[in-house]
Structure formats: structure tokens, C-alpha cells
TrEMBL record, chain A:
PROSITE patterns: D_2_HYDROXYACID_DH_1. GO terms for cellular component: cytosol. SUPFAM superfamilies: Activating enzymes of the ubiquitin-like proteins. This is Ubiquitin-like modifier-activating enzyme 5. GO terms for biological process: protein ufmylation.
From TrEMBL, chain B:
It comes from Vanessa tameamea (Kamehameha butterfly). One of its GO terms (cellular component) is cytoplasm. CDD domains: UBCc_UFC1 (cd11686). This is Ubiquitin-fold modifier-conjugating enzyme 1. GO terms for biological process: protein K69-linked ufmylation. The active site is at residue 116.
Amino acid sequence: MANIEELKKKIVELEAKLKVAQGNVGPVREKIDVMSSEVVDSNPYSRLMALKRMGIVDNYEKIRELSVAVVGVGGVGSVTAEMLTRCGIGKLILFDYDKVELANMNRLFFQPHQAGLSKVDAAAGTLQSINPDVAIDAYNYNITTVDNFQNFCDTISTSSLTGGPVDLVLSCVDNFEARMAINTACNELNQRWFESGVSENAVSGHIQFIVPGETACFACAPPLVVASKIDEKTLKREGVCAASLPTTMGIVAGFLVQNTLKYLLNFGNVSHYLGYSALTDFFPTMALKPNPQCDDSFCRQRQTEFKAKPVVELATEVKEDSTPIHADNEWGISLVDENTPEEETSNLKLVDGVQVAYSIPVDNSTPETSSGGAVAASELSLEELMQQMKSM
Amino acid sequence: MVDEGTRKTLSSIPLLKTKAGPRDKELWPTRLKEEYQALIKYVQNNKEADNDWFRLESDKTGTKWFGKCWYVHNLLKYEFDLEFDIPVTYPTTAPELALPGLDGKTAKMYRGGKICLTDHFKPLWARNVPKFGIAHAMALGLGPWLAVEVPELIERGVVKYQEKSDEAK
């Protein structure tokens, strides 16, 4: 039998193995107080601060004071959070209610050993080890339910490094309900945000910058889709809900963070809408005006507020708006003649290659399918109705 | 887009009037009453047509719903738990109906057992805000889903017939 010495040796061996398995060996990145532009191997910020020396960004280190909320930490959101972490963002606030699954491994960021962990906790752990200077808050809940929505609103309006509203909200969610919830919250809070998305067939995507009252909100029009040049009838959906590619998601995350950096650090032009069609390598951009008849009352209120602002500001906006439209036509990608009469769909001016997912009739007094008459106001109380339903 | 049967079923469900979500403190109880009235009518219709296929109830706030739905295949009744929350953006966005018991058993589902609806559902819902309610989501979403997916699940042996031992007590 083994003696005590041998057993002690065995313990040391096993402890070493355990450490490796737990991944807490190797050099750990220490916290850094002030971003340095010194070009040495040990400075994680040297290449970022070089942006200043090259005249691209005026004050890169300002990023340390800024906070960004990332809603949805999946294929797009996790990569978005990693990019911002590596850029040295001051604070990240992560929201998701999902767990890491092996089915997520066709996308970037998460690793098989994280399966079963909540996405926000798994992400916070990895991000913190990449850059301990970033403050990270994680919220593991579904923002669309009544209770959580209030907490979500409170969180984004108080989570900056100084206790105020975050500088930007990034929507990286994968469903219409969550996008509408973010839209509702941001219109109410007058919070600027970016919407992002990848189509369910994985071959197109988009980002959209939403400044309440100033650019179209997510409820101003039916969802916009980049034409994929695939006939919907030939798109096979049998046995699957959604496809995904790490490439498309990485590209959309890249677009999203690039425009986030441009907005936060004030360089270049921020796109109001940027689409991506993977099959044709087509990138439509456009500006989007808000819909005066938007369904969201807070959107309409923000529009009124924006119109009341001094004209000077408006003038610069118009200039910004027109640039992407012309840039797009220069490429000559559009198939339709420029003089094609505009469609009558409100004041929504869409660039070629982008369309609404569906149309909504202006006069919806006669619904398409239902003729069963409206519910007549019941004499019964809600409790009585609940009881009646229960006893059926 | 929607088959004739579904269209007929839909047309006999009363339409709702009040555009209010769970955050509209004042109007939500009115909307909730309309939801219950439409659901009661729909279940009555189903019973009359000998096609009774679900029961639903909600908590007091009307934001959390749960119940059962069932599907008869080869004379055997397969029953599933059903649940969903009313999102803050309701009725602009439809409720996401979930069958948690089938989570992971079919690709036609999102996480947590939320059923994957056809391309037709969302446009149709959007065009009928606020007239469509929970009863319409059931008729247009869950009904057709069960009809397509359950026979396939049974065939694959993923769903097996279970004697109703619990209710026998």
C-alpha cells in the first residue's frame, strides 16, 4: 500500500490538475487605473490609445467613464460585450434569461464547459478575466414580463458609473416581443439605443440607431428586413425554427460596436440604419424619420419635443441624414430606377433592398379574418368570468 | 395563408375592443374581462363542435396564464401543460405560448418550450391589434401547431400515451 509520502505527492498532483481544470492558472490580468498610451507588450490599451495619436479619436480614454447596457447575450450580444470589454468600456450591464447550451456552440464566445450556466453569469466571468477594469452588472431575467420590465427601466436609468442613465442601450435580442419592450422603455426614458438583428435564415442582418423623437422608433413601422433574394416559398422551414451562423452574427456585432464606438467617442458618421445581405454582399444604409402616427404615444411625445428644439441642431441632422443615401446609390447596386414613384406607405422612405416585413392596413376597421362580432360588455365581474372559465 | 378551418374558427371568436396592456392600470381589467369573454365563447364553440381542446386560467393580475391542452391521435388523448406570460407590450405583441413539457423534444420550439409559429402568425396578429386576444392566439397559433407537431412527436416515439392516473383519484 502507498505510504503517507506517496499520498501527499498524489494530493499535490491532483491539486495541480484541479487548478488546470478550473482554469485559474496562468497569468492574471491586473487592474489598471489609468489608460496609458505607452507602447509596451504589457499594456493592453496601447493599440487603442494609438487611435488618438493617429488622429482618429480625440479622447479615447473617455470610454472608461461610459456605460452600455447589452440586452440579450446570445450570438450577437456576447460578441458585442466582448468587443466593448476589450475596448475598455467603463461599465457593462448585461440582461438575458437564457442558459448556455451546447446548441449555442456554432456561435462565438461561449465554450462547452459553460453549458448549463446562465448566459449573463458565464459571460460576466469570461469578460471580467479578459478585462478586470470593466464594471459588469448581470441581470438574469426576462425583460418582457410586468415585474421585470419595471426593474429593467429602473436599471438602465440608474446604472451609469455616476448613478445616472446608461450612455447607450444595445438590443441584441432574438425576438419581436423583447425588441418592442426595449422600444417602449427607451421611448419612455428618452434613452438612445441601437437595435440589431440577424434573420432567422442567418443570411441577412441589420443595425438601427434609435434616438427617440429624432429617428424612427421600432414601432414606427413594421419590422424592416433586408431582401435576401430568396423566394419565401422556397425557404424550407420544416423541422427548424431558426438557423444561425457565427459569421453573420459576428459581422452584425462588429457593425453594432463600430457604430457604438463612433457614437460614444464622437468620430466618423453613425449610421441610422445599416443592413447586410450575406448572399450578395450588399450593405444598404439609410436615414429613417419617425412616423408622426406612431402607435407608441411616448414616441409621438418625443417627436413633439424634438421639433421644439432649436433649428440649428436640426440642420446638422439633415446633413447627416442625406449622406448615406447618396453613398448607397454611388455603388449602383440598386435595381430599380431612382425615379420610381415612392410608395404611399406613410413617410417611410426605404432604400432599395430593404422592405417592411409586412404591411398594416391604415383602415383597420374591417379585420381580415374575423367577423364574429365584438365582445359585448359583460354584466359579470372579472372574478365571475374567471370562475366561469375555471368551471368549464 | 390560413386554412379554411382555422379561418372559420377564428371568425366565430368575438373580437376585443380595448387596447390595453398589463401596465395600463386603469384599462387592463376591462381588457382582461374581454379576454375571458372571448375565451369562454371559444371554449363553448369548441364544445359544441365536439372539438374541446384546452383549458386556461390566469392569476389575479391576468398576466400569468396556465392550463392544459390536448390532442387526440388514433383515439388516444395526449395532454400537455400550457403556460405563458402576458408581455408588457401586449396586445401589440402576441403572447408567447409555451408547452414546457415538450421543451427539447422538437426543433419547432424556442427555449423554454415556446412554440415556433409560422410566418403568417405575426403579420396577421399585427394587422389585427387590438382585436385579437388570447383566444385568437390559441386558435391561430397553438391549434395548428399541435395538429402538425403532435402526430410527428408520437410517430418519433418522443411523446408516449399516458394513462390518466392523477385524475382518477
